[in-house]
Design brief:
The protein has three domains: 28-68; 75-138, Ubiquitin-like (UB roll), CATH 3.10.20.310; 143-276, Rossmann fold, CATH 3.40.50. It contains seven helices and twelve strands. It has helices spanning 11-20, 31-66, 83-93, 106-113, 185-197, 200-205, 234-245; strands at residues 75-79, 119-127, 131-138, 143-147, 153-156, 162-166, 175-178, 206-211, 217-221, 224-229, 264-266, 274-276. The strands form three sheets. The chain has a five-stranded mixed sheet. Strands 6-5-4-7 form a four-stranded mixed sheet, covered by helices on one side.
């Protein structure tokens, strides 16, 4: 059907030729092309093999470090502390002995060690192949607190955190009396600004440092009572106090005739400081 005069192939025969992809007498593909085609056919198997090998290696590493007994915790080391604090930290770290090192929850260990308020920070690390390391930084005392109803002396750090109790205040540490009850870290921080703000001569004479229930600070310079107020504007308060102590009639060394006649300087509002208890001279006849 539809045969041309000089054509030896009809439509049906051409269909068969195109269906089978080559016709009689057609030259074969170049060897390089045949190799490339074979490589393309093999590529999926090659990729699958590589992926299988990678997954097997990953699974092996996970098992080796996370589940086998090759890399388990066998030792705990503590640095930065001694005595009771170090022993407590070591006891916490020892709970991980026998566990795979890679699976130790270092964040949880840090939380447990920091429950001891004497510890400021702790760096929990892994030292391969079998050691947990605990590097502690202890709090430094910045203030000693004697509190009503509490035996011993409380120690607070520069942030106002009360972290320990001792029998006596360490030498050279500022001591403040505080009322019974919870201690506000912000108030304890404010107390620490007083000696630093005062001129050295006044700081050496300041004594009987007290913290009120509302956070107000009071102390004495010689025979003069000073109401400092809160921790705001410490430098301005110090300058105001120094200027008032230089005024006539205000003598820290003058002993009052009666306790209720003591001179008081209130610098809680330094712009309007108030002096009470001054003795007025009697008029002469």
């Amino acid at each position: 059907m539809f045969r041309r005069k000089d054509d030896t192939w009809d439509l049906d025969e051409r269909s068969r030729v195109y269906r089978w992809g080559k016709r009689k007498g057609q030259p074969k593909a170049h060897p390089k092309l045949r190799q490339r085609a074979a490589a393309v056919r093999r590529r999926p198997w090659w990729v699958a093999g590589i992926l299988t090998l990678v997954l097997a290696l990953v699974a092996g590493v996970i098992y080796l470090f996370g589940f086998s007994t090759v890399f388990i915790v066998e030792q705990v080391t503590v640095a930065g502390a001694e005595g009771e604090v170090a022993d407590g930290a070591h006891e916490i770290g020892a709970t991980t002995l026998g566990r795979p090192l890679a699976r130790v929850d270092t964040d949880r260990l840090e939380e447990l060690v920091l429950e001891d308020l004497r510890v400021d920070t702790v760096d929990v690390g892994r030292s391969w192949p079998s050691t947990i390391t605990l590097d502690l930084t202890l709090r430094e005392p910045a203030l000693a607190v004697t509190q009503s109803g509490t035996r011993g002396v409380l120690l607070a750090d520069a942030e106002g955190v009360v972290y320990d109790t001792v029998e006596k205040a360490p030498p050279g540490l500022t001591v403040v009396r505080a009322p019974k009850g919870d201690l506000d870290p912000a108030a304890l921080q404010a107390v620490q600004t007083v000696p630093a703000a005062l001129p050295p001569a006044l700081a050496r004479r300041a004594e009987d440092l007290r913290l009120g229930a509302g956070g107000d600070i009071q102390f004495s310079i010689g025979e003069i009572a000073v109401t400092w107020g809160d921790g705001s504007s410490p430098e301005l308060k110090a300058r105001t106090l120094e200027a008032l102590l230089e005024q006539d009639g205000i003598d820290p060394d003058a002993v009052p005739e009666a306790a209720d006649e003591r001179v008081t300087i209130d610098v809680s509002t330094p712009s309007t400081a108030v002096v009470t208890g001054l003795q007025t001279a009697e008029p002469t006849a």
